[in-house]
């Protein structure tokens, strides 16, 4: 499997999208993309932290080797949402940040 990626910033003053490809073997990998919501506070932080947290959680669940990949994805999504919500509670400047 070969993977490549890139980003175009466009008219915004900062890149609000983030992505990562994690390769586990020749036929197993994970691709994650997060689109920071422009016009909302800290969209760049939200997308960057969402990708970082999701990959970390997924890797952790995968290394436990229990459950199915579908469960790993679901649990990683829920944990990432909780982590981002916690960040907005702890840091006032991040209140309202969002990503898809």
What do you see in this structure?
The structure is a single chain. This protein is α+β, with helices and mostly antiparallel strands and 100 residues long. It has 2 helices and 2 strands. It has helices spanning 43-64, 69-90, and strands spanning 17-25, 28-35. It has a two-stranded antiparallel ribbon with strand order 1-2. Strand 1 and strand 2 form a beta hairpin. Helix 1 packs antiparallel against helix 2 (69-90). The protein is flat, with a radius of gyration of 15 Å.
Number of helices: 2
- Low-pLDDT parts are none
- The largest beta-sheet arranges its strands as 1-2
Oligomer: single chain
Residue-averaged pLDDT: 89
Which percent range fits the helix content? 40-55%
* Shape verdict: flat
Main sheet overview = 2 strands, antiparallel
Beta-strand portion reads 15-25%
Structure summary, number of beta strands: 2
Q: Radius of gyration, Cα only, in angstroms?
A: 15 Å
The assigned structural class equals alpha+beta
Q: Give the helices and strands as they follow along the chain.
A: EEHH
Separation of termini? 26 Å
């Amino acid at each position: 499997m070969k993977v490549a990626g890139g980003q175009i910033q466009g008219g915004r003053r900062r890149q609000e999208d983030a992505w990562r490809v994690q390769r586990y073997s020749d036929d197993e990998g994970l691709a994650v993309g997060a689109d920071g919501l422009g016009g909302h506070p800290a969209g760049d932080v939200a997308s960057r932290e969402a990708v970082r947290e999701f990959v970390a959680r997924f890797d952790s669940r995968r290394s436990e080797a229990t459950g199915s990949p579908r469960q790993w994805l679901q649990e990683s999504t829920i944990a990432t949402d909780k982590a981002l919500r916690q960040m907005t509670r702890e840091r006032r400047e991040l209140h309202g940040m969002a990503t898809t």
